[in-house]
Amino acid sequence: MAEKINGTADWAPGTLDKTRKNIGEISDKDAAAMAKKLGGQVLYERSSSSGSSSSGNKAGRIMRQTTGGGSGSSGSSAGSGSGGMSGMPTGRRRKEDLPVISKKAATIMDKLMMSAEYKIKPNYGMFNFIRSFQKNGMEKIVPDFYTYTIKQATEHMEGFITVIKTLIQIAPSTYKGKIASGTESKFKFLRNVAGWAMQPIKVEYINLQGINEPLLVADLIPLIRAIYKPLITVYYYGNTKIPKLIKEIYSDEAAYPDSPKDKLSQYAKQAITEWLYIETEVIKKLYPLLMRMCSDTYESYPTFFNAKVGEILKFVGLHKFDLLLPEKPKEPAPEEKRPKVAPPEKGIKDSTVITGLKLLNQMFPDAGFDRLDEHPDMYPYFQPLFHFKDGFNILSPENPIQVICVLQHIIEDCFQGCRNITFTEPGEQKKGADTITAIMDDWSAYREDTFEQLYCEPLCDLVNSVYSQPDFDKSHIGKKMITSLLWQTTYHYMPNFKFEQLLLEHPTDESKYRPLFHRTDYARKFLTLVINECDQKAATKATCSLIENPWEHYKFDIPNEVSKRLDVLLGAQNKTSNTTANNANLLKYTLCFVAVLDWWINNPGSPAYATEPMHIWRVSDADGKPQFSVPERKDQNKLFADGIRASYQKAAK
Fold first, then answer.
1. What is the pLDDT of residues 360-394, one digit of tens each?
2. CB of 640 closer than 8 Å to CB of 381
3. Other C-beta atoms lying within 10 Å of the C-beta of residue 575
4. What are 338-363's pLDDT values in tens digits?
5. 8 Å CB contact between 541 and 551
6. CA 220, 225, 230: angle at the middle one, nearest 5?
7. Which H, E and C letters describe 394-419, residue by residue?
8. Distance CA 14, CA 550 (A)
9. pTM of the predicted structure, to 2 decimals
């Protein structure tokens, strides 16, 4: 009977696929057991309806072949002939392995995979309809996606695992003990990543190389599952928080006296870089495939990862208890609560302002910060240092904006270093509320836009006209220009500025930035909170809630006049953990300078409000005409060096 079947069997095309569907999905182990018990013969399926029954022209696929009662194997091709068709390679997935989705969802996912951002499927533009006529045309994968994108993803995952393991290996033995048994998120994170294995991912990647035909979406199921299985365990901790964990780990290890700080810094930066690549180029770039493999609806990134948590965990074979989740913040006990330090009053001249004036006088000796009530001329001293544009040279020493511009530039130089500090705004922020980061971003605009364009340009036009026409300031257009400048002072710089209106017209405020006097008030209050917290934790160099890296050496990407002087005053050549040239002290100097500016413009009792409002431009003592410049000084650096030398000699005594 067996010989008869073996000699005459000639199954119609599709018979084997229908049989598989009727049987349903079974594991390889179950298939092997069934083959052993039932035995079997080699049966063929015709490739086309015109196939001959003769053995010489027979072509088709082997259903199952057994040798000595062994397990069967499917997926090889048998027979020959012009009508032959290759069978499904071993282990290849079919479209039926993907979730059934609606036509609308399929169209959206298809477009997403063809988009320039993901480049998973080929995009033929207006000829995309051709794909529907090709065999598996709608499921084909771009070869470069497999050979480059996925290869890069695996390499960077391996790099991330390696550098995390290195951070653990070079950690002091005491800290290694904490890593092994600690319950904090950073220790769980280290243990989790160190336990990731690349072998399953590499095996699945190599398996795909055995498929000669173009890869289909379904073929990538095992590989995508292997890639996402470890990544999902840390994803829900908050992908943006992982760099913070790495920084915290670096700070912990660097605090040990004998730790290799340079290597730690290098590996921590490398770990953050690798994670950012994984976040943007792996988790995000492969998400359309993950969505197609485990979801029956379309969800945008990153909404998909929150909307389909259950489906994702089921697909990768994980439980919710396998995930690293953020810890709920613990409420401190009532007795541990410290009284909040009241922020300074707007424009008050307190000890911070007095300290700021002393520091300014130390940093810029003989500039006049110790006698602002005399309204010293700042132009000769600061023009060679800051190179202000035309207009600053015309300002009268009695014009309070001259001091404002100098202080604004000094603070701008400080902010160049503060940009490398990571701040955390306190409490819940109202929509549109100011932040220290926004202030630093806008700060240079108060010089470039508010001062140079809205104030200096019309001032230069006015002064040139007055110089050529002595009575121009008494004309209607002259009065209009003067009134406009006085209003600009009120709009942007000095809220309590009072003057006699020459005309009843009110010019419009064309600035797109908040008034400077509001920004200085906020910056002063926020930085006061930061410095108070740093002072409380300076002895132990503990972590602060408002700033992430207070004890790191400050960094200026490009040295400037202020940073050079700070380097000398704070001993920036000391790169050890005990250096005084750290971010906390940079913020102290910045706070003092901001406090001086805040006092100057927001306090009605400051010398800024004690001058004649109409003394806007510089006037020659000889003829009373506008004066466009005065000789510049060249002794600024010498005065600073002499001051430092005198301080050292005084300390030595």
1. 999 999 999 999 999 999 999 999 999 999 999 99
2. no
3. 10
4. 545 555 666 678 899 999 999 999 99
5. yes
6. 140
7. HECCCCCHHHHHHHHHHHHHHHHHHC
8. 70
9. 0.51
